[in-house]
């Protein structure tokens, strides 16, 4: 485990930051937690509201089994304890977007207990890791949304989100830097997307974080923490921590006192501001929901949840290293997002088939090309991998042409550019553009002889011991053959000609 060296430099010395995150992740489900209303993003205001969501008199909630199943699967994915008996509570508070006057949540007996997530604290060294504890995952319903910009004097209420199922994933205060919090949030998002329990789309509000920050002198007791609510991107979470930690240090060192309060982050200024004081962490008058029986899970249901889990990012990364021989860095890059891993596995399968080799024999070629060539080209164009005009099948075709010597690596870069421009296959482009690699030793020999004759002075220097000039002769030969000569043959013939 790697310890963070991140510190705030104050006037009185160094301060350590203590961070915990409460992540609200919207459960992937076609209907809400306690009603049959739809959950699709982007619907007209109040178009997806049932009588239960609107809290009409006499309406009773009925738990959605799929939402419970997805939360259990998420707990299993982080090796958490699954509580076979759990209970819903009412969290009482009044707000205009909460029709019931309470939120149905789980405080005393959550569905999922303690678990852990391992994060990489150095992107370039996946072996440098730290374990972040998870305290609990509880299931709760979301509130509606107030819209303040639709009318000059009134606020409108949209209840489409009211009753949408959320998993609240509560970490332990184990993070000690903005970078660790960012790594944790990215890793958690990746796991949720692998499992399929949340789409992780922070821009649409389906994943957001409450950021708890306190500061202390190294080794001292925990300080008073503040909670910054509803931060909706990894970058903003890191910015919140940076600002809030520095604000607290400045406040303490100037003789002030940090108060436990709820704050909001302003992305425009990169600062936080006070929203409301919070004297007690549990000031909501919780009590068991009388309309809902406790949840009791049987072994068959749990076994079904466990069997439905896919290969998760850490297991996939280790398999790529151990079975495919990929470097830890490449394995980390390819497994960081579920879409990337799926794309790579399709590429690998097609490349192995096209070249008639086992997947392990083409894995390094495929991984290097995807990470170095395709990612780079797509980044320049601002295109996401899932929208790439070059499909895994077309990528495998290009790799096969490199593998059998039809084209060189440098020509392959030109072919890839044409593939991205036109959407055509690699073989068709090579044929049309006349880009086949020249392996005819006679033709290459003639060019080599001319290059050496034109550079007799450098040949003499080479033979006198200046061996670095060999690269110059290779470059001149390749240039004369417009990059189409087989580099291996060029190297062999030059060594032979130079004695």
Summarize it.
The protein has about 500 residues and is α+β, with helices and mostly antiparallel strands. The chain has 3 domains: about 10-305, no CATH class; about 315-435, no CATH class; about 440-499, Arc Repressor Mutant, subunit A, CATH 1.10.10. It contains 15 helices and 16 strands.
Describe the structure.
By secondary structure, the chain is α+β, with helices and mostly antiparallel strands. The chain has three domains: 299 residues, no CATH class; 121 residues, no CATH class; 58 residues, Orthogonal Bundle (Arc Repressor Mutant, subunit A). Helix content is 40%, strand content 18%. The chain contains 15 helices and 16 strands. Strands 1, 2, 6, 7, 10, 11, 12, 13 and 14 form a nine-stranded mixed sheet that branches. A three-stranded antiparallel sheet has the order 5-4-15, with no helix packed on it. It has a two-stranded antiparallel ribbon with strand order 3-16. Strand 6 and strand 7 form a beta hairpin. Helix 1 crosses helix 4, helix 7 crosses helix 8 and helix 12 packs across helix 15. The longest helix has 23 residues. It is elongated, with a radius of gyration of 30 Å. The mean pLDDT is 93.
């Amino acid at each position: 485990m790697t310890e963070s060296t991140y510190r705030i430099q104050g006037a009185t010395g160094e301060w350590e930051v203590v961070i915990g995150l409460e992540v609200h992740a919207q459960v992937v489900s076609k209907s809400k937690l306690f009603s049959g209303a739809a959950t699709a993003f982007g619907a007209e205001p109040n178009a997806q509201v049932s009588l239960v969501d609107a809290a009409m008199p006499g309406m009773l909630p009925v738990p959605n089994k799929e939402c419970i199943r997805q939360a259990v699967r998420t707990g299993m994915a982080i090796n958490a304890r699954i509580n076979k008996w759990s209970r819903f509570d009412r969290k009482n508070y009044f707000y205009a977007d909460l029709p019931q006057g309470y939120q149905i949540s789980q405080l005393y007996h959550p569905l999922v207990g303690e678990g852990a997530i391992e994060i990489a604290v150095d992107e370039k060294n996946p072996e440098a890791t730290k374990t972040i504890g998870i305290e609990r995952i509880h299931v709760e319903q979301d509130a509606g949304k107030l819209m303040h910009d639709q009318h000059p004097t009134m606020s409108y209420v949209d209840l489409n989100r009211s009753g949408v199922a959320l998993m609240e994933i509560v970490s332990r205060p184990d993070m000690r830097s903005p970078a660790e919090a960012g790594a944790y949030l990215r890793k958690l998002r990746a796991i949720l997307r692998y499992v399929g329990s949340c789409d992780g789309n922070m821009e649409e509000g389906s994943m957001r974080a409450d950021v708890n920050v306190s500061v202390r002198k190294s080794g001292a007791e925990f300080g008073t923490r503040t909670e910054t609510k509803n931060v909706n991107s990894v970058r903003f979470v890191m910015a919140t921590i940076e600002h809030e930690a520095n604000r607290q240090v400045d406040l303490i060192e100037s003789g002030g006192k940090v108060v436990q309060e709820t704050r909001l982050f302003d992305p425009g200024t990169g600062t936080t501001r006070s929203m409301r004081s919070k004297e007690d962490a549990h000031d909501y008058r919780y009590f068991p929901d009388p309309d809902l029986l406790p949840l009791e899970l049987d072994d068959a249901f749990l076994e079904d949840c466990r069997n439905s889990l896919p290969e998760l990012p850490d297991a996939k990364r280790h398999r790529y290293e151990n079975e495919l021989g990929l470097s830890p860095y490449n394995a980390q890059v390819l497994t960081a997002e579920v879409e990337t891993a799926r794309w790579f596995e399709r590429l690998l399968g097609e490349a192995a088939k096209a070249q008639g080799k086992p997947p392990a024999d083409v894995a390094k070629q495929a991984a290097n090309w995807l990470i170095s060539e395709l990612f780079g080209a797509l980044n320049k164009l601002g295109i996401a991998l899932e929208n790439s005009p070059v499909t895994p099948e077309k990528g495998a075709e290009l790799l096969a042409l490199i593998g059998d010597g039809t084209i060189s690596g440098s020509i392959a870069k030109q072919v890839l550019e044409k593939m991205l421009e036109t959407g055509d296959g690699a073989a068709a482009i090579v044929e049309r553009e006349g880009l086949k690699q020249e392996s005819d030793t006679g033709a290459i020999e003639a060019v080599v002889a001319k290059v050496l004759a034109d550079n007799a002075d450098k040949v003499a220097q080479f033979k006198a011991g200046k061996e670095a000039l060999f690269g110059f002769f290779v470059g001149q030969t390749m240039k004369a053959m417009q990059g189409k000569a087989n580099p291996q043959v060029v190297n062999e013939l030059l060594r032979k000609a130079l004695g």
